[in-house]
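Q: Predict the bound structure with S-adenosylmethionine.
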Amino acid sequence: MLSTKGLNLTMLAIPCAKSQQLHDPQATKLIANFDNPGKFQKDCDTVYDDFLNREVVVRHRYFTHFLEQKQDLYEQVLILGVGLDTKPDMLPCLKNKAVYGCDLAVTDIQNIYQATGVHTRTKLVACDLETGMNQQFLTRLQARGFSLTKPTLVLWEGGTFFLPPEAVVHDLSFLNQQLNLVGLLVDYMSSAVFNPPRHEKARRQLELVAKIGFPWKSFFTPAEIKQLEHKLGFTEINVTAHGEIEQRVFGNVKLDKDIVYLNAAFKPAAGTN
Ligand SMILES: C[S@@+](CC[C@H](N)C(=O)[O-])C[C@H]1O[C@@H](n2cnc3c(N)ncnc32)[C@H](O)[C@@H]1O
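A: Predicted complex:
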């Protein structure tokens, strides 16, 4: 049995939810040998109406839809805060794409893959997204084969809220400037629900994430998301409230409809019209 001691539990919570809710075989293998890998997931779901389970399923469905629909637009994918994301290994539409993933906890991630014997196609590169989105990071990515000129899609799932808003804007602006960015798939915690907390459940959720050492630091409105992406030159922008997809997937809405904003934005590759 592997211990979860010292691990970022939010990272193991995602494969737990994907194993239970989506019967994802890679997620199931990743958690199989851990002692109580679902602890954080259960705590979160208890505090807030099945929040983690529902949120993981909703965002997986939303992002998978756009990864499939736009697969001819991008040649490579960069996943920010990749954690143990199984999409690069499970989605047919990513099978022939080069996939790079960065994270603060790359050593933990590599240790988990090694200890569980699970293989990932994702090329992992260390990066602290709060302070380390810079030329040195791009150099490390390029050393693994990443191209600054190929049409690129950036996926940032379940991660913006761990950073202050200025860092989120900096990272997306920097990547937009340096890469041939054609697609952006991102989710944002809602300002209206959390800043300040709308009710006791929201307050307890903030308390829980602070207690495990990963406080939430940024919250956005749909207007702020659209404004940023217009500024970055995106021509097709979709912002969808969590509840819209929750209704479609689960047949009812248990969480606040606007608890999370799911966002997909696209523009033509550089040099095309
Ligand atoms: C909730 S998990 C989501 C993982 C993955 N994107 C998914 O949806 O399966 C958040 C991830 O963000 C990473 N993270 C948190 N703060 C970070 C930072 N400052 N820089 C880079 N990664 C960070 C964590 O290590 C963790 O892997």
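A: The pocket of S-adenosylmethionine is lined by residues 8, 10-11, 14, 81-83, 85, 103-105, 127-130, 157-159, 162-163 (CB under 6 Å).
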